[in-house]
């Protein structure tokens, strides 16, 4: 997606005692908001553009996914390192009680940040987050799915213009290869915390979250079944849950208008 | 030239329409198996390797694949142990070469060091030890290792195994991937250091590692050596030259599927159906996305593969490949002893190959035909190949002394540290 009409600046933040530098994309104006992106990478989609109208949106690029520093992921040893790194990033950016939004993989990270550091976020928005595990409803590991089968697992409204635009690869062969390499590497970097399970004990910590939480899930999520919403709702103290109809896993791309309206209502 | 016998241990009785009904040979439902026929498959496989041992092959090779119908070999050391003892009993001076225990996936590296050491003792110093990184699905899906950690785990485990073999004193190992308060294995290998081999698919990083550590380098020609050989071997020899090392052919092993009969026509008649089974219901039924799971190949490697995918040969066409196509690509070399010997000699000479790993049992090939293939190859093909490199002065440094090798006595491995957590880039 184009960033042509959006003014995006970048800031590099060094954390973990100098071991890791995280690139942060920043756009918009207003109160602070931190967005933690999904496993495959990041683009300024309609939801994020919408949020820039009222918030200063900060998007830390997942370690390894910044174009100039693919090996950065090797500096993040384990899940604890990752959670601490993001806490330090938010602290160094000087953000006071930002709205913390996380989608899918980023949702797992946002939830655990809020559980480790209950005072950190003002509010928390979780869009179909990973982080829990039910034997009776295994989360699909997208890293082990044939690439041609992935879109139907990620999206319900496959034919929508937005989803089609997201799935579209560049026609120039070199650009296409670069895009595919970047995407595979992004999945590989986040995959460090997906195998063997995208679950790092979050269930034991969820009760620590004190900020108000908005939890959104697509009824037709074929990566993480909607029944996981109940698991979060049961443990998180102040949780507003919204299940979106006709909606798959990547909520803000599958149902952008509904996602924006629900989020605006929560943040109002 | 050293000539070895290689076989995988496929279940030989998969249904004819397997590749239409099932996505993959890596998650085949065990309900397809008749236990009696599993026993037959395994027994035939072992019997055939012993036929090879008695027919004068220089070593017996097996690979490791967990949860796989095409190579029922969760731990090659069990088979290697059976072969080590049986060949000792019969006085057969043959190398035992697991290709071998996969260090990128293992959670028990000390167990690997112990098993290999025990094999070397049991065989009276005939172990030739292989250490592959491992296949994507086996590392990640069967063993839960994040693909991006496979290489780091491999390197750490390798350091640990080599030190466990050689350090005279008990030591603690506080690694990133495994931690042992004491490592002091019994027994230690009989050889001062068993010859070590690494199997690669063309990644220059892996090739260079074999040179830096003085290991042998194996390449498997499954994806069609006529397509890939001219890419892989010149790349290797260029690295050898750049490293200032002699171009010793014995540091290279090449694995080839081979089918020999009295005439070319007879070879086609005998082997076509079974070669198709081997590739369609074997390697061809490993989906490419389960080999290339994101994270397993670093970003430079991804860029190289996307820019030039030639190293994969005919892999992507294998699932529907006909016998003719397999032969045309060089995935199978078939024919009379003359035809086969001529092709192998030319190929090994061109690419300076000092160890030919002959895969003579494959797919659904009935055990009588496997034995014929082994014996005919041993009698009529191997003698024509053995003279290759015999007129050179190169010594075989990657072969056990008991079997005529001149193994490297000093370890070329970098010194391992008891606390190496801060000394390597993790993962």
From TrEMBL, chain A:
Pfam families referenced in this protein's UniProt entry, alphabetically: Abhydrolase_6
The GO biological-process annotations, alphabetized, read as: acylglycerol catabolic process
For this record, the Gene Ontology CC terms, alphabetical, are:
membrane
Task: Give one GO molecular function term.
Answer: monoacylglycerol lipase activity
Q: Which UniProt keywords apply?
A: Hydrolase
Q: Where is the AB hydrolase-1 domain?
A: 33-259
Q: Where are the transmembrane segments?
A: none
Gene3D superfamilies with a match to the protein in the record: alpha/beta hydrolase (3.40.50.1820)
PANTHER family tied to this protein: HYDROLASE, PUTATIVE (AFU_ORTHOLOGUE AFUA_2G14860)-RELATED, MONOACYLGLYCEROL LIPASE
Could you tell me what this protein is called? Alpha/beta hydrolase
Species name: Salinispora arenicola
Automatic annotation (TrEMBL), chain B:
Q: Name one GO molecular function term.
A: monooxygenase activity
Keyword Glycoprotein in the entry? The reply is no
What are the alphabetically sorted keywords of the record? Monooxygenase, Oxidoreductase
Per the record, what is one GO cellular component?
cytosol
Span of domain Luciferase-like: 53-346
Instruction: Provide the transmembrane region boundaries.
Output: none
List the SUPFAM superfamilies hit by this protein, alphabetically.
Bacterial luciferase-like
Top-rank lineage group of the source organism: Bacteria
Protein name in the entry: Monooxygenase
* Originating organism: Salinispora arenicola
């Amino acid at each position: 997606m184009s960033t042509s009409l959006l003014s995006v600046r970048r800031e590099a933040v060094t954390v973990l005692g100098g071991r890791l530098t995280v690139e942060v994309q920043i756009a918009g104006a207003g109160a602070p908001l931190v967005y933690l992106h999904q496993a495959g990478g990041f683009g300024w989609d309609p939801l994020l553009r919408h949020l820039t109208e009222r918030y200063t949106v900060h998007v830390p690029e997942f370690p390894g996914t910044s174009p100039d520093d693919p090996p950065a992921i090797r500096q993040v040893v384990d899940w604890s390192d990752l959670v601490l790194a993001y806490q330090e990033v938010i602290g160094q950016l000087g953000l006071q009680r930002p709205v913390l939004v996380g989608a899918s993989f980023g949702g797992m990270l946002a939830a655990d940040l809020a559980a480790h550091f209950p005072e950190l976020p003002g509010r928390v928005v979780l869009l179909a987050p990973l982080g829990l595990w039910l034997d009776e409803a295994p989360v699909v590991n997208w890293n082990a799915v044939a690439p041609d089968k992935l879109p139907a697992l990620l999206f319900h409204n496959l034919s929508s213009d937005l989803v089609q635009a997201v799935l579209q690869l560049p026609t120039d062969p070199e650009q296409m290869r670069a895009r595919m390499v970047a995407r595979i590497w992004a999945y590989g970097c986040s995959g460090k915390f997906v195998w063997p399970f995208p679950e790092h004990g979050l269930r034991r910590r969820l009760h620590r979250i004190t900020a108000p939480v908005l939890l959104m899930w697509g009824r037709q999520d074929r990566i993480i079944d909607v029944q996981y919403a109940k698991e979060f709702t049961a443990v998180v103290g102040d949780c507003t849950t919204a299940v979106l109809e006709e909606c798959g896993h990547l909520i803000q791309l599958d149902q952008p208008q509904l996602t924006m309206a629900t989020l605006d209502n929560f943040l109002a | 030239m050293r000539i070895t016998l290689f076989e995988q241990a496929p279940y030989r009785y998969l249904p004819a329409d397997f590749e239409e009904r099932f996505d993959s040979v890596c998650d085949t439902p065990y309900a397809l198996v008749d236990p009696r026929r599993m026993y037959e498959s395994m027994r035939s496989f072992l019997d055939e390797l012993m036929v090879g041992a008695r027919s004068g092959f220089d070593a017996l090779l097996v690979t490791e694949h967990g949860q796989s119908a095409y190579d029922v070999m969760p731990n090659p050391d069990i088979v290697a142990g059976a072969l080590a003892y049986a060949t000792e009993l019969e006085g057969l001076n043959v190398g035992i070469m697991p290709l071998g225990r996969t260090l990128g996936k293992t959670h028990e590296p000390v167990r690997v060091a112990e098993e290999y050491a025990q094999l070397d003792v049991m065989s009276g110093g005939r172990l030739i030890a292989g250490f592959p990184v491992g296949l994507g699905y086996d590392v990640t899906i069967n063993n839960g290792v994040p693909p991006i950690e496979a290489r780091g785990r491999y390197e750490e485990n390798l350091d640990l195994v080599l030190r466990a073999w050689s350090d005279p004193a008990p030591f603690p190992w506080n690694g990133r991937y495994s931690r042992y308060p004491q490592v002091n294995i019994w027994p230690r290998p009989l050889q001062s250091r068993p010859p070590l081999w690494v199997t690669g698919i063309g990644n220059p990083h892996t090739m260079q590692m074999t040179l830096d550590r003085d290991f042998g380098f194996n390449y498997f020609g499954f994806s069609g050596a006529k397509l890939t050989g001219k890419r892989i071997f010149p790349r290797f020899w260029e690295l050898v030259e750049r490293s200032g090392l002699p171009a010793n052919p014995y540091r290279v092993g090449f694995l080839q599927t081979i089918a020999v009969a009295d005439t070319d026509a007879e070879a086609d008649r005998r082997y076509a159906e079974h070669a198709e089974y081997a590739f369609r219901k074997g390697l061809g039924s490993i989906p490419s996305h389960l080999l290339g799971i994101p994270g397993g190949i670093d970003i430079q490697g991804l860029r190289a593969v996307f820019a030039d995918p030639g190293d994969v040969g005919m892999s992507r066409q294998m699932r529907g490949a006909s016998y003719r196509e397999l032969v045309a690509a060089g995935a199978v070399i078939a024919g009379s002893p003359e035809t086969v010997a001529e092709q192998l000699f030319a190929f090994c000479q061109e690419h300076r190959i000092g160890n030919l790993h002959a895969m003579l049992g494959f797919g659904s090939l009935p055990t009588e035909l496997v034995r014929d293939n082994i014996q005919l190859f041993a009698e009529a093909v191997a003698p024509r190949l053995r003279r290759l490199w015999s007129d050179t002065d190169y010594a075989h440094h990657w072969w056990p002394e008991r079997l005529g090798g001149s193994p490297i006595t000093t370890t070329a491995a970098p010194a391992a540290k008891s606390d190496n957590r801060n000394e390597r880039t993790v993962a």
